[in-house]
Amino acid sequence: MAARGGRGGGGSSGHCSQDKSITLPPDEIFRNLENAKCFAIDIGGSLTKLAYYSTVQHKVARVRSFDHSGKDIEHESPYEVTVQEEITARLHFIKFENTYIETCLDFIKDHLVNTETKVIKATGGGAYKFKDLIEKKLGLKVDKEDVMTCLIKGCNFVLTNIPHEVFAYQKDSDTEFRFQTNHPNIFPYLLVNIGSGVSIVKVEMEDKFEWIGGSSIGGGTFWGLGALLTKTKKFDELLQLASKGQHTNVDMLVKDVYGGAYQTLGLSGNLIASSFGKSATADKDFSKEDMAKSLLHMISNDIGQLACLYAKLHNLDKIYFGGFFIRGHPVTMRTITYSINFFSKGEVQALFLRHEGYLGAIGAFLKGAEQDNPNQYSWGENYAGSSGLMSTSPDLCPMQRTRSGTFDMFEMDRLERPLVNLPLLQDPSTYIPDTVDLTDDAMARKYWLTCFEEALDGVAKRAAASQPDSIDAVERAEKFQQKYWNKLQTLRQQPFAYGTLTVRSLLDTREHCLNEFNFPDPYSKIKQKENGIALKCFQGVIESLDSLDWKERQLALVKGLLAGNVFDWGAKAVSDVLESETQFGFEEAKSKLQERPWLEDSYNEWLDRLKEGPPHKCALIFADNSGIDIILGVFPFVRELLSSGTEVILACNSGPALNDVTYSESLIVTEKIAAMDSVIQSALKEERLLLVQTGSSSPCLDLSRLDKGLAVLVRERKTDLVIIEGMGRAIHTNYYAALKCESLKLAVIKNSWLAERLGGKIFSVIFKYEVPRE
Amino acid sequence: MKKQGREHGSEVQSNRAARGRRLHSALGPRTSPSSRHLLPVFPWFGLDIGGTLVKLVYFEPKDITAEEEEEEVENLKSIRKYLTSNVAYGSTGIRDVHLELKDLTLCGRKGNLHFIRFPTHDMPAFIQMGSQKHFSSLHTTLCATGGGAYKFEQDFRTMGDLQLCKLDELDCLIKGVLYIDSVGFNGHSECYYFENPTDSEKCEKLPFNLENPYPLLLVNIGSGVSILAVYSKDNYKRVTGTSLGGGTFFGLCCLLTGCSTFEEALEMASRGDSTKVDKLVRDIYGGDYERFGLPGWAVASSFGNMVSKEKRESVSKEDLARATLITITNNIGSIARMCALNENINRVVFVGNFLRINTISMRLLAYALDYWSKGQLKALFLEHEGYFGAVGALLELLDTA
């Protein structure tokens, strides 16, 4: 897997030598150092984790109405698109082997241009040892922070901010990593940190935790005793030995004590009666592998047992395991999981964290960045800048450890606005946005990975074409293509690298990679053009709708909404059509639609509801595409709702994704429509039509991470209808989402594989009207 | 027959939750209900066959009438003479003379109770001897408990022409503990504890009155460890167990030091210094870790110093033996303490042959329980350490009569 090898030492580092004085690849690691501040460092027994806060300058596409100087006639387009520089905050974390500390510190010193930072927060056992070196090299004062406080701060942070942070490890399963939905309330939990010894900490609140116990039998015991028994010096090598051994040659099992008759007692004969019991009674030599395995079982079982006893005493059922004993080692996760299952009789689940290795660094960083209030913001994992789980695992990439310079990275973007649950979710703790788990479903995974691979060339071309004036657009587009291609290859091998693999995560990763290479909105020009065309048709569409009787009009509105949804540059089948048939329009789209009955068709129930029930109080609509979709599909529908007395909250993405309509575009489009239409105009004026942003820049929709302002408004207006439109938001995600109020999920399936899976053909229609059970 | 260790343990981690299968009613034809006063015929044995050690208790009747003496068959007489006139049997069998209970009255008979042990791997030789001495001709019932009662049942039948009466080991253990404690130790207390366990100067062994024993946590440390919560004579449950027991201590010692007997391992441990092997809290934090209230002397990582090559080269075998002993003992103490807290029991009785001649572990257990529970938990010990299962087996024999 050549692409993966390129990860740490990738980019310009193809020639990094085995020598200790490695040349660091500046493109890849320690990015954005120029403006870095708030440094923190966590130096463990073998790995160093460095954290810093930085601002990232990148391009964003802005839309702006033309000046109203009466020269509108000149403009084909309804607004202008400009590219501006924007500064956002990003957290960078880099993990590397301690041997590179000096080289890394030199590198940082050389690249740190203007920082007002005076101190560096330090934690971890090695912080003492390297204190002088850090102070000398960086000229920063080292400020030591308590290890456990940092660990827990970091743990709270990732549990709160990163979806799919937590996973259970399943042995002998297709998907070894079973990611968990983030629970809205992370407390209380037990953190079992297995370093050289074991610390068991009960965490009750953000700043309230208690050391409730520990054990001296931990990673140091495995390592130290293992080194004595097997003459193998390195921890990783000991684990390798253990994974090849047979503990039954060393341990005394129940069946060794009971003979063949243990079955009569209802015991499993394979249980260990006495660890190393055979080395006391048998007079022979034992293999290194067998002893290492026996030692691993002994220690894992012991830790699991104690963890269960503490969990029981404190009435806790969530136990997170961390520390170097666990870190990225499937073999220890397996034995710990087994032990917890055994001792808790399945009542407690052993849980692990994707970013476990970074907890101390994150915590130390948070301690140092308190004046910036990082906990006030919501954060998002940047898939483009993060290496992903097990990127350096010796078990998965045995060659990797021998390479010099294995750097693992993790980046988080500070989001403009805090994200919260949609208050209308029936049960936030069980809500899973994604419809298909591609880590589970190998067939679907293969299909979608291939699908994204095949579309990549087109996406890269479109990105380059979107910036015709930029001299390096083609080069950047190639870099984007390479980066996303590498990500896709990584995901083929390790679908679990960034949590549960879903169509949404594939789409989001693509957006992150595009942003990374300064293609903030490759579709801005297309959207601009389509919005212009659609606006011109708006009045005609309204007139023809108004000429229909009520019942006909309702169906026409729904069909219009669906036809609008055909205009989706994200779907390859459609983008091919749109590229070749420039005349493809609203009427052509309608003719493509499946005839009723639709693949999923509860239109009659919807119609009955409109006919018989009182008008809805307030509808929340999640819009999909720009152009015909929003203007000729959604707006007439909105207009009808407003006319019948329903208030409307129209939610659009905060940032661009494909040709999805953004919040700022929606503002302009609405303004233009209001100028043509009195219903929309008065609704805007009277605040019966409200435009909000979702807080997202994804073509999909995660109802558990929505803009706080949206959530507040939804509550205030007593929203009783949610309309979710489009394949990304209503099929790839939320198809099974249960809400507390009525909902309408509608989409046109623009992918024949997916249509077939759902039992239909391409351009099949999903119209799902749901009423919550009382 | 060099390696000889503590007593056996039961299985470890199994949760034999359903201990429904009580095994004590399977006695043979010799107990006819019509003959209430008919005692089992001599000899009276109780056998506990563990993973490492076999424990045998033998009741020697001292009130034999001339008439009985006359009737006593030669085989029986020779067995009695052989067992009572020797303190060692073969190269590995040992009679713990200091534990002998004198002038005991059992089922109306007066006599002495003898305590004998030998390694489980000598079991075939034992059965062979029984066969040679025509043990089966005595028509006695041999009550046995421990895993070996199952493992060797077939051998007893085919080699020795003997039908074993298999008994549940936890039933026997509790029965034995309660009985021995009730009769006392030749006028002394069977149960004892350490006063001032946290003060090595003032620490002393004192008798403990276990008259009202319930509830108690019974920790049996053999090759592995079983932990039972006992609420009354016949209400108890197995709480948990651990595979880190006496077998682990001895097994690791054999691998690390090349020693060959339990006694040798303990002797080495008594001369070693575990702080050279273990990483203490003060090795990491320079002193106490106040944030968590951890004292500097506490072990942070057992064998933690052994990750360093230099330190591996500078420790002695005695240090390693000591560290192994401390590691295993602390861990048992820790698990026992957690079980006591979870079961809401504050008296913890430690038994099993791991504690035989092992004052280091007993004092450490007493200390650890007291220190970490802030004086809430009390560690208790019994003089007959590993023999309770065998005593229980003997009592079952008499009970059914």
TrEMBL record, chain A:
Tagged with keyword Iron: no
Damage-control phosphatase ARMT1-like metal-binding domain boundaries: 451-760
Cofactors: Mn(2+); Ni(2+)
Signal peptide residues on this chain, from the entry's feature table: none
Keyword annotations from UniProtKB, A to Z: Acetylation, ATP-binding, Coenzyme A biosynthesis, Cytoplasm, Hydrolase, Kinase, Manganese, Metal-binding, Nickel, Nitration, Nucleotide-binding, Phosphoprotein, Transferase
Subcellular location: Cytoplasm
InterPro entries tied to this protein: ARMT-1-like_metal-bd_sf, ARMT1-like_metal-bd, At2g17340_3_helix_bundle, ATPase_NBD, PanK_long, Type_II_PanK
Superkingdom classification of source: Eukaryota
Ranges of compositional bias, category Gly residues: 1-13
Gene Ontology MF terms: ATP binding; hydrolase activity; metal ion binding; pantothenate kinase activity
Region described as Disordered: spans on this chain: 1-20
One GO process term, biological-process aspect: coenzyme A biosynthetic process
One Pfam family, short name: Fumble
Family recorded in the similarity comment: In the N-terminal section; belongs to the type II pantothenate kinase family. Belongs to the type II pantothenate kinase family.
Subunit structure, interactors included: Homodimer. Interacts with PKM.
Role this protein plays: Phosphatase which shows a preference for 4'-phosphopantetheine and its oxidatively damaged forms (sulfonate or S-sulfonate), providing strong indirect evidence that the phosphatase activity pre-empts damage in the coenzyme A (CoA) pathway. Hydrolyzing excess 4'-phosphopantetheine could constitute a directed overflow mechanism to prevent its oxidation to the S-sulfonate, sulfonate, or other forms. Hydrolyzing 4'-phosphopantetheine sulfonate or S-sulfonate would forestall their conversion to inactive forms of CoA and acyl carrier protein.
Protein name: 4'-phosphopantetheine phosphatase
Gene that produces this protein: PANK4
From TrEMBL, chain B:
Pathway: Cofactor biosynthesis; coenzyme A biosynthesis; CoA from (R)-pantothenate: step 1/5
UniProt KW keywords: ATP-binding, Coenzyme A biosynthesis, Cytoplasm, Kinase, Nucleotide-binding, Phosphoprotein, Transferase
UniProt subcellular location: Cytoplasm
The keyword Cell membrane appears for this protein: no
Domain of life: Eukaryota
Reaction catalysis annotation: (R)-pantothenate + ATP = (R)-4'-phosphopantothenate + ADP + H(+)
Subunit structure: Homodimer.
GO biological process annotation, one example: coenzyme A biosynthetic process
Name the UniProt record assigns to this protein: pantothenate kinase
Basic and acidic residues biased stretches: 1-10
Gene3D superfamilies: 3.30.420.40, 3.30.420.510
EC number annotated for this UniProt entry: 2.7.1.33
One Gene Ontology cellular component annotation held by this UniProt entry: nucleus
Sequence segments annotated as region (Disordered): 1-32
Homology family: Belongs to the type II pantothenate kinase family.
Principal subcellular localization: cytoplasm
GO molecular function, one term: ATP binding
Gene for this chain: PANK2
